[in-house]
Amino acid sequence: MPAPHRDAFGSELVSAAEAARRSVVPATQSDRASLFTSWVAFCDDLGHEPFLSDVPPDLHIDFFIVFACRYRRGVLSRSSLPVRSKRVEEALRAVGQEFARLGLQDPRLDGTKYTFRLRTLFKAWSDDDPAASRVWPVNITILRALSTTLQHHPNRPRAEAIIDLATIGFYFLCRPGEYALSPATDRGRSTPFRLRDTTFSSPTIQRAPAADCSSHDVQAGTYVSLTYTDQKNATRGEALGHGSSGDTTLCPVHAAQRRVLHLRHHLAPPECPLYRYFDAGGTPHDITTGDITAALRTAAAAVQHITNIPPNRVVAYSLRSGGATALLVSGVDETAIRALGRWKSDAIFLYLRTQASTLTANYSRHMLLHGQYSFSPATDQYSDHDLLPLQAPPHLADTLNAADQHVAHTPKDPP
After folding, report:
1. Based on the domain organization, do 177 and 251 belong to the same domain?
2. Which domain holds residue 68?
3. CATH number of the domain that 73 lies in?
4. What is each CA distance from 390 to 122, 138, 370, in whole angstroms?
């Protein structure tokens, strides 16, 4: 191949490789790089190069299995502690995909599935894993307590921002980084909703942009929409909306109105995230996921005797599961909940978008009414075996428990 063509050919390959890497969020890229570093150290200790060019191909799987065993025991893990089977799968995936990027055979795979030896090994480890420690949902009772615990907070703009953002997170089933500032260590695709992503509608005005419309149009809104730009699992350019819940405080429309009017009062630009607030002196500050977690735990502790929800198991993500649980208890179809929460249901979302206003206009009322669910009282220790509220429809218990059992005992096919 002539030199100019060879250079152009190589340049295209490099560009394609870079584009492929960008398909994975930075946090995952960093994690995979760290995992491959552990593999490099493992191979170096055994006197072999990382891609095992000096080892017969039929023995590559043996190296993968020994690496998996040591990583499982914590010998090679970052924490130096034993890890769960799923984490071992992630470690082997990171290594196998590096082989594939070079055009080599991924030793993990037999065709498109794990080799028999890996499949049975992951199954055995999955059976031995302790039950996962899951976050508990935040319900309406906790959200009401949040308003109470913050009503005398000396920094009113901050307190009001936390209450409004928590309300938005609950009703819109947001991931934490979509309604609050995520820490630098969380670099996943959790793009925050901004002023320009917010629109209001009323019987007389449709989709008035919050960044440009009059204050009267904002205040007159009876329906609020958030438009997806780069949020995870979302269809870009599409919007999800809610009508009024009927409550002056715990209402997605009123919460969004308060955020928008506050930001507009301080001349915030359209790109300003909804999690920003301005103090009495006009200085901007951001509400973080840590701020949300701390406030929610205080509120959860105040009403634990009612909800039986352990405060130390509440985090910012609990608003997402809490809103979904409220919809579940209210009888909304599970498929619609998956679509609204963007749980890998793109086809359903494309259907919902054409009727979003009709379908979701009354959901906030359902969530307000049925969001005061509670759980069975704890004994010596909180159990994750069944996080289904007492008020949930009876048929859901068997369905969800069966699904949990299937997931817990089925090794995932490699991506």
Report:
1. yes
2. 22-128
3. 1.10.150
4. 35, 15, 11
Question: What angle in degrees, to the nearest 10, is found between the helix axes of 140-149 and 156-171?
Answer: 170
User: Is 283 inside any structural domain?
Assistant: yes
Helices vs. strands in the chain: H and E counts, helices first: 18, 8
In a domain, 67, yes or no: yes
Report d(CA 17, CA 76) in Å as an integer: 28
Q: What is the pLDDT of residue 278?
A: 97
Name the token pair of 37: 């570093």
- Residue 76 half-sphere exposure toward CB, CA atoms < 13 A: 24
Residues 344, 256, single domain; the answer is yes
Element of type H or E holding 62: helix 60-73
DSSP helix/strand/coil, 171: helix
Render 185-235 in DSSP notation, one character per residue: T--SSBPPPBGGGEEEE-SS-S-EETTTS-HHHHHH-SEEEEE-SSBTT--
Task: Tell me: do 182 and 59 sit in the same domain.
Answer: no
The answer to whether the beta carbons of residues 252 and 371 sit under 8 Å apart is: no
Looking up residue 306, the CATH number of its domain turns out to be: 1.10.443
pLDDT tens-place string over residues 351-402: 333 334 545 667 888 888 888 777 766 544 555 444 556 666 665 555 545 5
Of the residues 107, 128, 149, which one is the last residue of a structural domain?
128
- Report d(CA 340, CA 352) in Å as an integer: 9
Residue 178, Cβ density class (10 Å: 0-12 exposed, 13-18 middle, ≥19 buried): buried
